[in-house]
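On clarity, I found the account of how folds are encoded harder to follow than it need be. Since the whole study asks how a given chain folds, the encoding of that fold should be made plain. For illustration, here is how one protein appears when written out as sequence plus structure tokens:
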Amino acid sequence: MSNDSQIDRKAEREKFREYRRTRDPKLREELIVANCALAERIARHFAASGEPLEDLTQEAYIGLIKAVDQFNPDRGVQFNTYATHVITGHLRHYLRDLGKLIKEPAWMQEARYKVNRAIEELQQKLHREPTAREIAKHTGLKLQVVEQVLDTRELFQVESLDEPMETEEGEQIINGQLERLAYEEFVESSARLEDKIALEEALARLNRLQRKVIELFFYNEYTKTEIARILGISANYVGYLLQRGVQNLRDILTGKAPAKGVAKAAERFDPVTQFLQEWYFLEQLDLDVRRALRYQFPMAVGCAICPQLRSYHRRWRRKRLQTLLRALAQVTRSNLREVDYVGRVGKHEFLIALPHTERGARVAMQRVAERIRETF
């Protein structure tokens, strides 16, 4: 980012701070005019709806005004990012109310479902975006149909953004832009109820994978597909974790989370290695095994035993032993994926859970074992 851009954004934040403090109508008008181009650009994105561009632009301006009035510059989000979500949401509701959203033919909806599912499966297998020919072979669809689906993805995005998808358990998961907007509004309200410290404490009470997905999606602004690739899980599962994580945060911050069975972060982790305590590891493992059976994905568990630690426990002082254990934990963690997790069992053993891993589990465990031997 250039220095000029940084200066402009800093100046814009200062103007928003002043506007929030004074509600000066002249300053409000200045902020709106400065961002009209953003509203116009988003309006053009919805041109496929068939509505006159002039009408779309007017509605985009209304969304922009709403964004200017609601924006909080101290939340660490750039205004153009926030305004994009607000304007897009406003336009979507406007089009829905008019009943002018584009509807796909039933055969195209079925083909799109097959193509999207194939893309997700092939991404996991190939570790890259699949070609149209590869998708056609995987689904059994004609190449021309696959190409048509891919070519019209953006056209039908207006419709799909407003429709929640459903898990096999019947829980609804809303798509990316709506999720981020809802989360931003949720964070704003929770900040008024508690404060940023309360939010951080609430995040710490989530299970590790929910917390990681929320951080990647809302704070680093990765897409679900990117998060799935990073963590080695499916995009649908990422959506499920987002929905559950945000709901759990809301329950914690509003006092609705059940007290029974909700442990403090300090009680769930071994204080030396920061690995999961045995009871919590087994609890998480049970949940993951259930998910693996439900969603038909592989799951592996390995055990790392360090017999040298027995003699070290007898010969070394506690402080020196803890230093070694921390080094051992760091080595182990650096050779695993983000989605993997480790539990400390007793003094000398560690259990390692490897979700979405089958053939690679043996290789991963061998790599960890080699690094542990090198540590001693």
Residues 170-223+233-262 form one domain. The chain has 19 helices and six strands. The two ends are 45 Å apart (CA to CA). Residues 154-175, 188-195, 259-263 have pLDDT under 50 and may be disordered.
